[in-house]
Automatic annotation (TrEMBL):
GO terms for cellular component: cell outer membrane; efflux pump complex. It comes from Draconibacterium aestuarii. One of its GO terms (molecular function) is efflux transmembrane transporter activity. It comes from the Bacteria. This is TolC family protein. Residues 158-185, 375-424 form a coiled coil. It holds the Pfam family OEP. The keyword Coiled coil applies. Belongs to the outer membrane factor (OMF) (TC 1.B.17) family. InterPro entries: OMP_efflux, TolC-like.
Amino acid sequence: MKRTKTKRLQVLIILVVFLGLGNFTVQAQEALTLAKALSIAETGSPDLQQSLLSLTRSQKNLEAQRAALKSRFSLDVNPVAYSNQRRFDNRVSEWYTNENFETSTMFRVEQPILLTDGTISLTNQFGWSSNNSSSTDIQSEVFFNNLYLSLNQPLFTYNRLKVQLKQLELNLENANINYAMQRLNLERNVTEFFYNVYMAQMNLTIAKEELENTQKSYDIIVNKVEAGLAAKEEQYQAELNLATSKSSLQNSEVTFENAKDQLKLYLGMDLFEDILILADIAANPVSVDLDMAIENGLRSRMELRQREIDIENSQFDLIETKSLNEFSGDMSLRFGYTGDNDKFNMIYENPTKSPSVSLSFSIPIFDWGERKARVAAAEASIESQELNLTQEKKQIIVDIRQVYRNIQNQVNQIEIAKQNERNAQLTYEINLERYENGDLTGMDLNLFQTQLSEQKIAYRQALINYKIELLNLKIQSLYNFETGEEIIPGELYLNDKK
Protein backbone atom coordinates (compact mmCIF):
# COMPACT_ATOMS: atom_id res chain seq x y z
CA MET A 1 0.00 0.00 0.00
CA LYS A 2 2.84 2.34 0.89
CA ARG A 3 4.62 1.52 -2.39
CA THR A 4 1.44 2.39 -4.31
CA LYS A 5 1.17 5.74 -2.57
CA THR A 6 4.88 6.42 -3.20
CA LYS A 7 4.52 5.64 -6.89
CA ARG A 8 1.48 7.87 -7.13
CA LEU A 9 3.40 10.71 -5.46
CA GLN A 10 6.32 10.28 -7.88
CA VAL A 11 3.99 10.30 -10.84
CA LEU A 12 2.32 13.47 -9.50
CA ILE A 13 5.71 15.21 -9.07
CA ILE A 14 6.80 14.24 -12.56
CA LEU A 15 3.50 15.51 -13.97
CA VAL A 16 3.85 18.87 -12.17
CA VAL A 17 7.41 19.28 -13.43
CA PHE A 18 6.33 18.41 -16.98
CA LEU A 19 3.48 20.90 -16.89
CA GLY A 20 5.83 23.53 -15.51
CA LEU A 21 8.28 22.98 -18.33
CA GLY A 22 5.41 23.05 -20.78
CA ASN A 23 4.24 26.42 -19.44
CA PHE A 24 7.76 27.76 -19.67
CA THR A 25 7.97 26.68 -23.31
CA VAL A 26 4.68 28.35 -24.14
CA GLN A 27 5.76 31.54 -22.43
CA ALA A 28 9.08 31.54 -24.32
CA GLN A 29 7.27 31.20 -27.63
CA GLU A 30 6.17 34.54 -29.05
CA ALA A 31 2.95 34.77 -31.00
CA LEU A 32 3.63 36.80 -34.13
CA THR A 33 1.00 38.48 -36.27
CA LEU A 34 1.65 40.19 -39.58
CA ALA A 35 1.12 43.64 -38.04
CA LYS A 36 3.57 42.84 -35.25
CA ALA A 37 6.12 41.50 -37.75
CA LEU A 38 5.90 44.74 -39.74
CA SER A 39 6.34 46.76 -36.54
CA ILE A 40 9.45 44.77 -35.59
CA ALA A 41 10.87 45.15 -39.10
CA GLU A 42 10.49 48.96 -38.94
CA THR A 43 13.25 49.06 -36.33
CA GLY A 44 15.10 45.78 -36.72
CA SER A 45 15.35 45.11 -40.46
CA PRO A 46 18.98 45.32 -41.68
CA ASP A 47 17.79 46.43 -45.14
CA LEU A 48 15.84 49.35 -43.69
CA GLN A 49 18.75 50.25 -41.42
CA GLN A 50 21.08 50.39 -44.43
CA SER A 51 18.63 52.65 -46.24
CA LEU A 52 18.36 54.83 -43.14
CA LEU A 53 22.14 55.15 -42.90
CA SER A 54 22.30 56.18 -46.56
CA LEU A 55 19.61 58.79 -45.89
CA THR A 56 21.50 60.08 -42.85
CA ARG A 57 24.70 60.35 -44.90
CA SER A 58 22.98 62.42 -47.60
CA GLN A 59 21.29 64.62 -45.02
CA LYS A 60 24.54 65.34 -43.19
CA ASN A 61 26.36 66.09 -46.44
CA LEU A 62 23.72 68.68 -47.30
CA GLU A 63 23.89 70.15 -43.79
CA ALA A 64 27.67 70.41 -44.13
CA GLN A 65 27.39 72.17 -47.49
CA ARG A 66 24.86 74.65 -46.16
CA ALA A 67 27.09 75.32 -43.17
CA ALA A 68 29.99 75.92 -45.57
CA LEU A 69 28.00 78.78 -47.15
CA LYS A 70 28.07 80.69 -43.88
CA SER A 71 30.93 82.87 -42.68
CA ARG A 72 34.02 80.89 -41.75
CA PHE A 73 36.23 82.17 -38.93
CA SER A 74 39.82 81.03 -38.55
CA LEU A 75 42.83 81.98 -36.46
CA ASP A 76 46.39 81.10 -37.45
CA VAL A 77 49.01 81.43 -34.74
CA ASN A 78 52.74 81.51 -35.46
CA PRO A 79 54.34 81.88 -32.03
CA VAL A 80 57.97 81.53 -33.14
CA ALA A 81 59.70 82.06 -36.46
CA TYR A 82 63.50 82.42 -36.33
CA SER A 83 66.01 82.53 -39.16
CA ASN A 84 69.72 83.39 -39.49
CA GLN A 85 70.77 83.48 -43.16
CA ARG A 86 73.68 84.59 -45.27
CA ARG A 87 72.47 86.71 -48.19
CA PHE A 88 73.93 88.68 -51.10
CA ASP A 89 73.00 92.34 -51.66
CA ASN A 90 73.00 93.07 -55.40
CA ARG A 91 72.91 96.82 -54.83
CA VAL A 92 76.32 97.02 -53.17
CA SER A 93 77.64 93.63 -54.32
CA GLU A 94 78.47 92.28 -50.88
CA TRP A 95 77.41 89.49 -48.58
CA TYR A 96 75.70 90.08 -45.26
CA THR A 97 74.11 88.10 -42.47
CA ASN A 98 70.46 88.64 -41.62
CA GLU A 99 68.93 87.45 -38.35
CA ASN A 100 65.18 87.59 -37.94
CA PHE A 101 62.84 86.70 -35.12
CA GLU A 102 59.08 87.02 -35.55
CA THR A 103 55.84 86.09 -33.86
CA SER A 104 52.43 86.71 -35.39
CA THR A 105 48.74 85.78 -35.54
CA MET A 106 46.29 86.00 -38.43
CA PHE A 107 42.54 86.26 -38.02
CA ARG A 108 40.43 85.62 -41.11
CA VAL A 109 36.71 85.82 -41.91
CA GLU A 110 35.65 84.31 -45.23
CA GLN A 111 32.16 84.52 -46.71
CA PRO A 112 31.26 82.53 -49.83
CA ILE A 113 28.82 84.31 -52.13
CA LEU A 114 26.23 81.83 -53.39
CA LEU A 115 24.80 84.26 -55.94
CA THR A 116 28.07 84.77 -57.83
CA ASP A 117 30.29 81.86 -56.66
CA GLY A 118 32.78 84.40 -55.34
CA THR A 119 34.44 84.77 -51.95
CA ILE A 120 34.82 87.89 -49.86
CA SER A 121 37.22 87.83 -46.95
CA LEU A 122 38.44 90.12 -44.18
CA THR A 123 41.94 89.44 -42.87
CA ASN A 124 43.95 90.95 -40.06
CA GLN A 125 47.57 89.98 -39.38
CA PHE A 126 49.24 91.22 -36.22
CA GLY A 127 52.74 90.50 -34.98
CA TRP A 128 56.10 91.56 -33.68
CA SER A 129 59.38 91.35 -35.56
CA SER A 130 63.04 91.73 -34.60
CA ASN A 131 65.48 92.07 -37.46
CA ASN A 132 69.28 92.44 -37.34
CA SER A 133 71.57 92.80 -40.37
CA SER A 134 75.37 92.70 -40.34
CA SER A 135 75.45 95.21 -43.20
CA THR A 136 74.08 98.01 -41.03
CA ASP A 137 74.65 96.72 -37.50
CA ILE A 138 71.25 98.16 -36.68
CA GLN A 139 68.59 96.08 -34.92
CA SER A 140 65.01 96.85 -35.80
CA GLU A 141 62.13 95.85 -33.52
CA VAL A 142 58.62 96.74 -34.63
CA PHE A 143 54.97 95.86 -34.13
CA PHE A 144 53.06 95.46 -37.38
CA ASN A 145 49.43 95.03 -38.41
CA ASN A 146 47.96 94.29 -41.86
CA LEU A 147 44.21 94.75 -42.27
CA TYR A 148 42.68 94.15 -45.70
CA LEU A 149 39.45 93.25 -47.46
CA SER A 150 39.59 91.05 -50.56
CA LEU A 151 37.23 89.69 -53.18
CA ASN A 152 37.89 86.72 -55.49
CA GLN A 153 35.36 86.27 -58.29
CA PRO A 154 35.39 83.69 -61.13
CA LEU A 155 34.25 85.08 -64.50
CA PHE A 156 32.60 83.58 -67.60
CA THR A 157 31.95 80.16 -66.03
CA TYR A 158 29.14 78.35 -64.26
CA ASN A 159 28.28 78.80 -60.58
CA ARG A 160 29.90 75.81 -58.92
CA LEU A 161 28.48 76.58 -55.49
CA LYS A 162 24.90 76.53 -56.76
CA VAL A 163 25.41 73.34 -58.73
CA GLN A 164 27.03 71.54 -55.81
CA LEU A 165 24.27 72.61 -53.43
CA LYS A 166 21.55 71.55 -55.87
CA GLN A 167 23.19 68.16 -56.40
CA LEU A 168 23.29 67.52 -52.66
CA GLU A 169 19.63 68.53 -52.39
CA LEU A 170 18.78 66.06 -55.15
CA ASN A 171 20.85 63.37 -53.43
CA LEU A 172 18.88 63.91 -50.23
CA GLU A 173 15.58 63.78 -52.09
CA ASN A 174 16.70 60.59 -53.81
CA ALA A 175 17.75 59.09 -50.47
CA ASN A 176 14.33 59.95 -49.04
CA ILE A 177 12.69 58.25 -52.01
CA ASN A 178 14.89 55.18 -51.59
CA TYR A 179 13.96 55.05 -47.91
CA ALA A 180 10.25 55.33 -48.73
CA MET A 181 10.54 52.64 -51.42
CA GLN A 182 12.46 50.44 -49.00
CA ARG A 183 9.61 50.75 -46.52
CA LEU A 184 7.16 49.62 -49.19
CA ASN A 185 9.45 46.78 -50.23
CA LEU A 186 9.85 45.93 -46.57
CA GLU A 187 6.10 45.47 -46.25
CA ARG A 188 6.06 43.20 -49.28
CA ASN A 189 9.09 41.17 -48.19
CA VAL A 190 7.88 40.80 -44.61
CA THR A 191 4.47 39.71 -45.88
CA GLU A 192 6.02 37.09 -48.16
CA PHE A 193 8.36 35.78 -45.43
CA PHE A 194 5.49 35.78 -42.94
CA TYR A 195 3.18 33.78 -45.21
CA ASN A 196 6.02 31.43 -46.11
CA VAL A 197 6.28 30.57 -42.43
CA TYR A 198 2.50 30.32 -42.20
CA MET A 199 2.37 27.90 -45.13
CA ALA A 200 5.20 25.85 -43.64
CA GLN A 201 3.28 25.82 -40.38
CA MET A 202 0.11 24.71 -42.18
CA ASN A 203 2.06 22.05 -44.09
CA LEU A 204 3.32 20.78 -40.75
CA THR A 205 -0.22 20.67 -39.34
CA ILE A 206 -1.52 18.88 -42.44
CA ALA A 207 1.41 16.45 -42.26
CA LYS A 208 0.46 15.66 -38.65
CA GLU A 209 -3.15 15.09 -39.68
CA GLU A 210 -1.99 12.90 -42.55
CA LEU A 211 0.18 10.87 -40.15
CA GLU A 212 -2.77 10.43 -37.79
CA ASN A 213 -4.98 9.22 -40.65
CA THR A 214 -2.24 6.90 -41.90
CA GLN A 215 -1.74 5.55 -38.39
CA LYS A 216 -5.45 4.78 -38.15
CA SER A 217 -5.37 3.07 -41.53
CA TYR A 218 -2.35 1.06 -40.42
CA ASP A 219 -4.09 -0.04 -37.21
CA ILE A 220 -7.16 -1.12 -39.22
CA ILE A 221 -5.18 -3.23 -41.68
CA VAL A 222 -3.09 -4.81 -38.88
CA ASN A 223 -6.27 -5.92 -37.14
CA LYS A 224 -7.64 -7.31 -40.41
CA VAL A 225 -4.43 -9.20 -41.15
CA GLU A 226 -4.39 -10.69 -37.66
CA ALA A 227 -8.05 -11.71 -38.11
CA GLY A 228 -7.26 -13.23 -41.50
CA LEU A 229 -9.50 -10.76 -43.34
CA ALA A 230 -6.73 -9.16 -45.41
CA ALA A 231 -3.59 -10.28 -47.19
CA LYS A 232 -0.16 -9.80 -45.60
CA GLU A 233 0.98 -7.54 -48.45
CA GLU A 234 -1.69 -5.02 -47.42
CA GLN A 235 0.08 -4.67 -44.09
CA TYR A 236 3.41 -4.18 -45.85
CA GLN A 237 1.88 -1.40 -47.96
CA ALA A 238 0.37 0.18 -44.83
CA GLU A 239 3.79 0.10 -43.13
CA LEU A 240 5.30 1.79 -46.18
CA ASN A 241 2.57 4.46 -46.14
CA LEU A 242 3.15 5.05 -42.44
CA ALA A 243 6.91 5.41 -42.92
CA THR A 244 6.33 7.83 -45.79
CA SER A 245 3.99 9.93 -43.64
CA LYS A 246 6.57 10.07 -40.83
CA SER A 247 9.23 11.11 -43.32
CA SER A 248 6.93 13.82 -44.73
CA LEU A 249 6.26 15.10 -41.21
CA GLN A 250 9.97 15.32 -40.49
CA ASN A 251 10.59 17.16 -43.76
CA SER A 252 7.77 19.59 -42.90
CA GLU A 253 9.33 20.23 -39.49
CA VAL A 254 12.69 21.03 -41.09
CA THR A 255 11.07 23.34 -43.67
CA PHE A 256 9.09 25.08 -40.91
CA GLU A 257 12.18 25.74 -38.79
CA ASN A 258 14.14 27.03 -41.79
CA ALA A 259 11.30 29.37 -42.77
CA LYS A 260 11.15 30.74 -39.21
CA ASP A 261 14.89 31.41 -39.25
CA GLN A 262 14.62 33.31 -42.52
CA LEU A 263 11.79 35.45 -41.16
CA LYS A 264 13.64 36.22 -37.92
CA LEU A 265 16.79 37.05 -39.86
CA TYR A 266 14.94 39.52 -42.09
CA LEU A 267 13.09 41.10 -39.15
CA GLY A 268 16.28 41.45 -37.14
CA MET A 269 14.90 39.29 -34.31
CA ASP A 270 16.80 37.09 -31.89
CA LEU A 271 17.45 33.87 -33.83
CA PHE A 272 17.06 31.78 -30.66
CA GLU A 273 13.59 33.16 -29.91
CA ASP A 274 10.81 30.78 -30.89
CA ILE A 275 7.80 32.20 -32.70
CA LEU A 276 4.29 31.06 -33.53
CA ILE A 277 2.52 32.50 -36.56
CA LEU A 278 -1.02 33.80 -36.13
CA ALA A 279 -2.52 34.74 -39.47
CA ASP A 280 -5.94 35.56 -40.81
CA ILE A 281 -5.94 34.54 -44.47
CA ALA A 282 -9.64 35.00 -45.10
CA ALA A 283 -9.90 36.87 -48.39
CA ASN A 284 -12.82 39.11 -49.23
CA PRO A 285 -12.99 40.17 -52.89
CA VAL A 286 -12.01 43.84 -53.31
CA SER A 287 -13.32 46.03 -56.09
CA VAL A 288 -10.42 47.39 -58.15
CA ASP A 289 -10.62 50.26 -60.66
CA LEU A 290 -7.86 49.69 -63.21
CA ASP A 291 -7.99 53.21 -64.69
CA MET A 292 -7.75 54.77 -61.22
CA ALA A 293 -4.84 52.51 -60.34
CA ILE A 294 -2.90 53.49 -63.47
CA GLU A 295 -3.67 57.19 -63.07
CA ASN A 296 -2.62 57.24 -59.44
CA GLY A 297 0.51 55.22 -60.19
CA LEU A 298 1.66 57.61 -62.93
CA ARG A 299 0.99 60.56 -60.62
CA SER A 300 2.55 59.24 -57.44
CA ARG A 301 5.15 56.56 -58.21
CA MET A 302 8.46 57.61 -56.73
CA GLU A 303 10.49 55.86 -59.42
CA LEU A 304 9.36 58.54 -61.89
CA ARG A 305 10.78 61.26 -59.67
CA GLN A 306 14.01 59.28 -59.45
CA ARG A 307 14.26 59.22 -63.22
CA GLU A 308 13.67 63.00 -63.25
CA ILE A 309 16.47 63.38 -60.71
CA ASP A 310 18.73 61.32 -62.97
CA ILE A 311 17.94 63.73 -65.83
CA GLU A 312 18.75 66.76 -63.67
CA ASN A 313 22.05 65.21 -62.55
CA SER A 314 22.90 64.45 -66.19
CA GLN A 315 22.25 68.10 -67.03
CA PHE A 316 24.64 69.14 -64.28
CA ASP A 317 27.22 66.76 -65.75
CA LEU A 318 26.71 68.48 -69.10
CA ILE A 319 27.30 71.89 -67.51
CA GLU A 320 30.50 70.60 -65.91
CA THR A 321 31.62 69.05 -69.19
CA LYS A 322 31.06 72.28 -71.10
CA SER A 323 33.39 74.03 -68.64
CA LEU A 324 36.23 71.82 -69.88
CA ASN A 325 38.71 73.91 -71.89
CA GLU A 326 36.35 76.89 -71.72
CA PHE A 327 37.13 80.60 -71.89
CA SER A 328 37.08 81.78 -68.28
CA GLY A 329 38.48 84.47 -66.11
CA ASP A 330 39.29 85.33 -62.53
CA MET A 331 39.15 88.71 -60.82
CA SER A 332 40.78 89.52 -57.51
CA LEU A 333 40.34 92.81 -55.65
CA ARG A 334 42.09 93.77 -52.44
CA PHE A 335 42.20 96.91 -50.31
CA GLY A 336 43.76 97.33 -46.91
CA TYR A 337 45.93 99.26 -44.47
CA THR A 338 49.38 98.33 -43.27
CA GLY A 339 51.00 99.87 -40.25
CA ASP A 340 54.20 99.30 -38.26
CA ASN A 341 55.92 101.00 -35.36
CA ASP A 342 58.22 100.12 -32.53
CA LYS A 343 55.47 101.21 -30.16
CA PHE A 344 52.33 99.15 -29.97
CA ASN A 345 49.89 102.03 -29.52
CA MET A 346 51.30 103.88 -32.54
CA ILE A 347 51.10 101.14 -35.18
CA TYR A 348 48.72 103.13 -37.39
CA GLU A 349 50.34 106.53 -36.83
CA ASN A 350 51.51 106.52 -40.45
CA PRO A 351 49.46 103.82 -42.18
CA THR A 352 50.09 102.67 -45.73
CA LYS A 353 47.25 101.92 -48.13
CA SER A 354 47.73 98.66 -50.00
CA PRO A 355 45.22 98.28 -52.86
CA SER A 356 45.66 95.61 -55.52
CA VAL A 357 43.72 94.48 -58.57
CA SER A 358 44.28 91.30 -60.54
CA LEU A 359 42.45 90.14 -63.66
CA SER A 360 43.35 86.96 -65.52
CA PHE A 361 41.84 84.94 -68.37
CA SER A 362 42.17 81.35 -69.49
CA ILE A 363 41.86 81.19 -73.29
CA PRO A 364 41.73 77.72 -74.89
CA ILE A 365 43.19 77.59 -78.38
CA PHE A 366 42.94 74.02 -79.66
CA ASP A 367 42.03 70.77 -77.85
CA TRP A 368 41.80 68.34 -80.78
CA GLY A 369 38.03 68.02 -80.36
CA GLU A 370 38.13 66.76 -76.77
CA ARG A 371 35.52 69.18 -75.43
CA LYS A 372 33.15 68.63 -78.35
CA ALA A 373 33.30 64.85 -77.95
CA ARG A 374 32.75 64.97 -74.18
CA VAL A 375 29.80 67.34 -74.58
CA ALA A 376 28.26 64.98 -77.15
CA ALA A 377 28.69 62.09 -74.72
CA ALA A 378 27.00 64.08 -71.94
CA GLU A 379 24.11 65.01 -74.22
CA ALA A 380 23.69 61.34 -75.16
CA SER A 381 23.54 60.53 -71.43
CA ILE A 382 20.69 63.03 -70.99
CA GLU A 383 18.78 61.48 -73.88
CA SER A 384 19.31 58.06 -72.31
CA GLN A 385 17.89 59.26 -68.99
CA GLU A 386 14.89 60.81 -70.73
CA LEU A 387 14.31 57.49 -72.51
CA ASN A 388 14.49 55.73 -69.13
CA LEU A 389 11.78 58.05 -67.83
CA THR A 390 9.51 57.21 -70.76
CA GLN A 391 10.14 53.48 -70.34
CA GLU A 392 9.51 53.72 -66.60
CA LYS A 393 6.05 55.17 -67.25
CA LYS A 394 5.28 52.36 -69.67
CA GLN A 395 6.59 49.76 -67.24
CA ILE A 396 4.35 51.14 -64.48
CA ILE A 397 1.30 50.75 -66.71
CA VAL A 398 2.30 47.20 -67.66
CA ASP A 399 2.98 46.20 -64.03
CA ILE A 400 -0.34 47.56 -62.79
CA ARG A 401 -2.22 45.79 -65.59
CA GLN A 402 -0.44 42.55 -64.81
CA VAL A 403 -1.23 42.75 -61.09
CA TYR A 404 -4.86 43.62 -61.90
CA ARG A 405 -5.18 40.52 -64.08
CA ASN A 406 -3.55 38.38 -61.39
CA ILE A 407 -6.06 39.64 -58.84
CA GLN A 408 -8.99 38.77 -61.06
CA ASN A 409 -7.51 35.35 -61.72
CA GLN A 410 -6.84 34.70 -58.03
CA VAL A 411 -10.50 35.32 -57.19
CA ASN A 412 -11.42 32.49 -59.53
CA GLN A 413 -8.58 30.30 -58.26
CA ILE A 414 -9.82 30.68 -54.68
CA GLU A 415 -13.27 29.39 -55.59
CA ILE A 416 -11.79 26.51 -57.57
CA ALA A 417 -9.38 25.58 -54.77
CA LYS A 418 -12.16 25.76 -52.19
CA GLN A 419 -14.36 23.42 -54.20
CA ASN A 420 -11.43 21.06 -54.84
CA GLU A 421 -10.67 20.85 -51.12
CA ARG A 422 -14.32 20.07 -50.35
CA ASN A 423 -14.41 17.37 -53.04
CA ALA A 424 -11.10 15.89 -51.90
CA GLN A 425 -12.37 15.70 -48.30
CA LEU A 426 -15.57 13.93 -49.34
CA THR A 427 -13.65 11.61 -51.67
CA TYR A 428 -11.22 10.66 -48.90
CA GLU A 429 -14.03 9.95 -46.42
CA ILE A 430 -15.86 7.74 -48.95
CA ASN A 431 -12.72 5.81 -49.83
CA LEU A 432 -11.72 5.47 -46.18
CA GLU A 433 -15.00 3.65 -45.61
CA ARG A 434 -14.30 1.45 -48.64
CA TYR A 435 -10.84 0.75 -47.22
CA GLU A 436 -12.33 -0.25 -43.87
CA ASN A 437 -14.73 -2.57 -45.72
CA GLY A 438 -11.85 -4.14 -47.66
CA ASP A 439 -12.93 -2.78 -51.02
CA LEU A 440 -9.81 -0.59 -51.48
CA THR A 441 -6.08 -1.20 -51.17
CA GLY A 442 -3.80 0.78 -48.89
CA MET A 443 -1.91 2.17 -51.88
CA ASP A 444 -5.10 3.60 -53.35
CA LEU A 445 -6.15 5.08 -50.00
CA ASN A 446 -2.74 6.75 -49.69
CA LEU A 447 -3.28 8.45 -53.05
CA PHE A 448 -6.57 9.91 -51.83
CA GLN A 449 -4.87 11.02 -48.59
CA THR A 450 -2.13 12.74 -50.57
CA GLN A 451 -4.71 14.39 -52.82
CA LEU A 452 -6.57 15.74 -49.79
CA SER A 453 -3.38 17.20 -48.30
CA GLU A 454 -2.44 18.83 -51.61
CA GLN A 455 -5.87 20.43 -52.00
CA LYS A 456 -5.80 21.81 -48.46
CA ILE A 457 -2.44 23.41 -49.16
CA ALA A 458 -3.57 24.67 -52.58
CA TYR A 459 -6.63 26.39 -51.08
CA ARG A 460 -4.62 28.24 -48.45
CA GLN A 461 -1.95 29.13 -50.99
CA ALA A 462 -4.63 30.63 -53.26
CA LEU A 463 -5.87 32.81 -50.37
CA ILE A 464 -2.34 33.98 -49.63
CA ASN A 465 -1.61 34.67 -53.30
CA TYR A 466 -4.69 36.90 -53.45
CA LYS A 467 -3.53 38.90 -50.42
CA ILE A 468 -0.03 39.29 -51.85
CA GLU A 469 -1.38 40.47 -55.21
CA LEU A 470 -3.53 43.08 -53.42
CA LEU A 471 -0.39 44.26 -51.64
CA ASN A 472 1.47 44.36 -54.97
CA LEU A 473 -1.29 46.52 -56.43
CA LYS A 474 -1.02 48.84 -53.44
CA ILE A 475 2.72 49.21 -54.01
CA GLN A 476 2.40 49.56 -57.79
CA SER A 477 -0.42 52.14 -57.75
CA LEU A 478 0.23 53.72 -54.33
CA TYR A 479 -3.48 53.31 -53.65
CA ASN A 480 -5.00 50.99 -51.06
CA PHE A 481 -8.18 49.62 -52.60
CA GLU A 482 -8.99 47.72 -49.41
CA THR A 483 -9.34 50.95 -47.41
CA GLY A 484 -9.98 53.33 -50.30
CA GLU A 485 -7.04 55.55 -49.28
CA GLU A 486 -4.32 57.06 -51.41
CA ILE A 487 -0.74 56.57 -50.25
CA ILE A 488 1.14 59.88 -50.16
CA PRO A 489 4.86 59.30 -50.90
CA GLY A 490 5.86 62.08 -48.50
CA GLU A 491 4.25 60.20 -45.63
CA LEU A 492 6.72 57.38 -46.20
CA TYR A 493 9.74 59.67 -45.84
CA LEU A 494 11.70 59.82 -42.63
CA ASN A 495 10.26 62.37 -40.24
CA ASP A 496 10.78 63.47 -36.66
CA LYS A 497 8.54 60.70 -35.39
CA LYS A 498 10.69 57.97 -36.85
